# Entry
Amino acid sequence: MRATWHQFILTAIVPVGQALQVDYGLNTCPWHPLVSSFEQYMCAPQDITGHSMQDEATVQLREEAGFAGRNRWQSLPDCFDEYCVYTNNNFFGRGMSTVTTATNQARIAEIQIPETDIERHENVHAVDIHGKGKGLVATGPIAKGERIMAARPALLVHRDAFPELQPTDIYYLMDTAINSLPETRRESYLAQSAAMGGHKVTDILFTNSFQIALGDEDGFHYGNYPESSLLNHDCRPNLAFFVDKNLTHQTHAVRDIAAGEELTISYLDALQVRSARQERTRDSLGFACSCAQCALPKTDSDASDRRLLVIAQMESEMSDFNNKKIPPSMIEEYVALYRRERLEYKIAGAYTLAALNYNMVGKAGMAKKYARLSVEAGLLENGPDSTEVRQMQTLADDPRSHWSWNVKPHV
# Structure
C-alpha cells in the first residue's frame, strides 16, 4: 500500500453502554490528517527522549483500562499529557499497541476477542507488482461475496495526539508502542512501505492507515493493519472493506475475480471525475493513479466523467425527500449508471436510495427488490452491524411498516 490517507469509519448514533460502536454506513473520509501545525513531521529526528507526567486520577483510569474484561493490557509508564502507550502482546493472538487516552483504552479493553486468527483466502498470494511494490493477486477463481481477509490491528493511535503533542513527544510514544510489540508483529509493522519521509514509525502509519472511531467524537484513531496494507488502490476495485466492532478489518469480493487479477480496494471517493481523482492521489496519496479507469482514452474518460456528474445530480434529487418529482425511470437510470461505471464496491447506498424512493410512492415490490440488493451489498461494504443494513432488512421484510411507506402517494 502506498500513501493512503484511508477512508474509514465515522461514528453516528452511539448507544449508551456499548464499548465500541461504529456506523459502517459512512466509510469515506475526505480530510487530510496532516494539519499545518504538524509540518515539522517531515524533518523530525528518529531518536527522541522524553519523560512521563500524569496525575493520580490518570494512573487509576489507566489501570482500570488496562485490565478491564478478559483483555490484559500493560500500561507503560510513557505518557505525554493525556496520551499514553498501552500494549497487549496476546491481543488477537499477535499483539497490539495503542497510543491513546485512558477513556478510549477502556473501550478497547472491553472488546471481545474473536476466537479465529487472521485469515486469508486460499486463492490469494502476495507478489511483487511492477510500480506498486507488494500486492495481493488471485491464484484461482474467487466468487462474489467471498471473504478475502480478516486482519487485526498492530497499532492504534489517537488522531488528536499529532496536533496536540510536540513532534518529539509523539515520536517517542510511537517508537515505544512499536518496540513493545512481539518481535514478529514488530517486524511486520516495520516491513510496510513508508512513502513520505521523516520519522519512520510515524511515516508507516500515515502511509498505511485506516480511520477508525471508538464511540464518540473523541474516539477517532488511525489504525494500522499490516496484512491489509498489501491491498493496492484502484478507482474501480474488486473488493470492499469495513472494520467490525472487534476492530477486525474485513475485505470481501464485490464481483467474481479471475485467477491472475490483482486484489484492490479504493483509497478515495471513486465518484469523483478523473481530474479530481488524479489531483487527490498526487497531492494527498503521493502517486498519480494509473489504474485502468484512470488510463482510459480521453474520449472514454470524458464519457465516464459525464456519467459520474449525472449520478451526482440524480443522487442530490433523490436524496431530497421533499422532492415530489422522482419518476421510476430516473431511479432505474440511476442504478444502471452505477453498474455501468462498475461501482460495485459502493453500490449499497444506491440500492438504498432506490428502495426508499420506490417505497415513498407505494411500490412495495420494487422497494423490496432494491432493499434486498442493498442488504446483500451492504453486508460486504459495511458489515452486519451497519445501521443501513438493518434499516434495509426491515424495509425488505415489511415495506408498509417502514417510515418511508407511501409518503408521496400523489406521485
User: Anything to note?
Assistant: The first strand starts at residue 4 and ends at 5.
